[in-house]
Design a protein that fits this description.
Layout: E1 2-3, E2 14-16, E3 28-29, E4 42-48, E5 51-57, E6 61-62, E7 66-71, E8 77-84, E9 89-94, H1 108-113, E10 116-121, H2 137-150, E11 156-161, H3 164-174, E12 179-185, H4 203-210, H5 213-219, H6 231-242, H7 245-253, H8 256-266, H9 272-282, E13 296-301, H10 309-318, E14 322-327, H11 334-350
Parallel strand pairs: 9-10, 9-11, 11-12, 12-13, 13-14
Antiparallel strand pairs: 1-2, 2-7, 3-6, 4-5, 7-8, 8-10
Helix pairs in contact: 2-3, 6-7, 6-8
């Protein structure tokens, strides 16, 4: 289903992946009303990329995630999710490695309460975005520019989790006319210092960032083997990876869907997009972190076993305008514990 967007870029078209976006099945009750009870629910007009539609919105209901796509100038499709309040303040969110737009899905209702609208794209080759072999951080910044132009967005912050951190830095460095502030959570910087890769806690990360590229391409078909895992086994693998602590508690409390869907979605087209994600870290970045003039807020859990505190401290020292915020009660899943702080801080400071 195609639709028009206010002041769209002339060569871009937007369509919804979900066919039932304007369908009452997409409006899910989160607190049951007793039979016959009177509700103060009122119908109002809600604007999203499909135009104006009638929707029910109150404390008893919320609008779930909407998946959409745009057509880029080179013909590729770029997919993204829209979560939270359709009329809220906008925040661009970039997913982690071996992940997808779905890793922020857990926060949908909380974002509604905070009156925040999140735009969460899949990077090329992941989820519902077409692959771009050999892509770089500069390529990603170009794709993001087209997305923001298509949605008529500017002057918004970007937040990247884990491997999404470098992609958020690229947006901050190369899209200064669109992005006002950068946030990272458990992020990493350039891997150009001794021990940078070896300090990462996940074996898969170390392999993808250090083994010969040709060998990785040969072995990449094996990367989709976990596609055949059950959700329960996938969740167990994630629990094993975080090695206990606060992350273990958070993951255990997540539903099977919220704990695993983002990983399954990352390889829905195969492992190529995930591999490209990591190989971009090994190519020239297209910008210099030491000369970035945008403010970067860095949240880091001190109990993070995947991306260690040392990596964030090194990156913060290299960035001219960085603030490192250490969370003693958190590991890699800082956003799950401190969502309100992270989101409200980024939005408030991006307006100053």
């Amino acid at each position: 289903m195609s639709c028009a967007v206010a002041n769209p870029a002339p060569t871009l078209a937007i369509s919804n992946v979900s066919k039932d976006v304007i369908n009452w099945r997409r409006i899910r009750c989160v607190s049951k009303l007793s039979k016959g009870a009177k509700s103060n629910i009122q119908t109002r007009r809600v604007r999203n990329i499909t135009g104006e539609v009638s929707a029910v919105r109150s404390r008893d209901y919320y609008m779930p995630r909407i998946d959409s796509t745009i057509k880029l100038n080179d013909g590729r499709t770029l997919g993204y999710a829209t979560l939270g309040d359709p009329n809220g303040r906008e925040l661009l969110y970039l997913h982690g490695g071996m992940s997808s737009r779905l890793d922020i899905n857990f926060a949908d209702e909380m974002l509604q309460d905070l009156n925040v609208k999140v735009i969460a794209p899949d990077r090329p080759g992941i989820g519902i975005s077409d692959r771009q072999i050999g892509r770089t951080f500069s390529d990603w910044a170009s794709d993001t520019r087209e997305l923001l132009q298509a949605l008529n967005l500017k002057n918004l912050p970007v937040l990247g989790w884990s491997l999404g951190g470098p992609y958020a830095l690229a947006c901050g460095a190369l899209l200064s006319d669109k992005i006002t502030l950068v946030g990272t959570i458990g992020g990493v910087g350039p891997l150009d210092y001794k021990g940078a890769v070896q300090d990462l806690g996940l074996l898969e990360d170390r392999i993808l960032l250090s083994w010969p590229e040709r060998l990785l391409h040969i072995l990449s078909p094996a990367g989709i083997l976990f596609k055949f895992y059950s959700p329960a086994r996938m969740k167990d693998e994630l629990l094993r990876a975080v090695k206990g602590g606060p992350d273990h508690e958070i993951i255990k409390a997540l539903s099977l869907e919220d704990a695993t869907s983002f990983a399954f979605e990352s390889i829905s087209q195969g492992f190529g997009g995930v591999l490209d994600d990591y190989l971009a870290m090994r190519k020239p970045w297209g910008f210099n972190v030491e000369t970035m003039q945008i403010t970067v807020k860095m949240w880091q859990g001190t109990q993070d076993h995947l991306c260690p505190v040392s990596a964030s401290k090194i990156l913060a020292a290299r960035l001219p305008k960085a603030e490192l915020i250490l969370k003693e009660d958190s590991g890699h899943f800082v956003l799950h514990r401190h969502l309100e702080e992270v989101v409200t801080t980024l939005l408030a400071e991006s307006e100053t």
